[in-house]
Amino acid sequence: MNETLTWILAAAAGLVLGAIFFGGLWWTVRIGLSSLHPAVWFLGSLVARMSIAIVGFYFVGRGNGLRLMACLLGFIIARFTVTMLTRATLSPKKCTTKEARHAS
């Protein structure tokens, strides 16, 4: 029972790490594209997000492969969740770009 609780907590930590990583990526893209210095935003965000994720995985794993795998599973689930929540829903009717004409 104790081992199961440890895996659940490791997966929850992975969810939090993934939410921070991918939520931060989404935020960086939104801010960075309208910034005067986007390279600074993207590079700074990459370093911060990677540092948080690596340190988090290090402390959660602590040399135990199963805890590390549970954390990775939570991280991947967070990726799909953040992707689903932040996906732009643009219907074809609202799209203002014209399709390119191709030679027939």
Describe the structure.
- The chain is an all-alpha fold and 104 residues long.
- The protein has one domain (2-86).
- Helix content is 74%, strand content 0%.
- It is built from three helices and no strands.
- It has helices at residues 2-32, 38-61, 65-86.
- Helix 1 runs antiparallel to helix 2 and helix 2 packs antiparallel against helix 3.
- It starts with a helix and ends in an 18-residue tail after the last helix.
What is the gist of this entry?
The chain is an all-alpha fold. The chain contains three helices and no strands. Helix content is 74%, strand content 0%.
What is the terminal-to-terminal distance? Answer: 66 Å
* Strand fraction: under 5%
Q: Please identify the structural class as seen in this structure.
A: mainly alpha
Gyration radius (Cα, Å) is 19 Å
Mean of residue pLDDT values? 87
Spans of at least 5 consecutive residues whose pLDDT stays below 50 are none
Helix content: over 70%
Which sheet architecture does the biggest sheet show? none
The number of strands is 0
Give the number of domains: 1
Shape: elongated
The tally of helices reads 3
Order of helical and strand elements = HHH
